[in-house]
Amino acid sequence: MNKLVPILILIFAVFKIAYSFWNNAATGRFLTMDLDIWIYRLVWMLIIAGSAYVFYKSEKNKT
User: Fold this and answer.
1) Among 4, 20, 31, 61, which residue's Cβ finds the most Cβ atoms within 10 Å?
2) What residues does each domain of the chain span?
3) Whole-prediction pTM value?
């Protein structure tokens, strides 16, 4: 169960970034705030990096 949460967050964040390119909006909404689209994508990239790190750390501790 602990490994599933970072993977789901990672998949969701990748979807949000991909959709932001496809939607071609000037702003993105994150936690009820309108952000510049590049800041919005940066926030989601940080979330991806964090969840990938948590997943990597949990896999590393497993062995």
Assistant:
1) 20
2) 4-62
3) 0.81
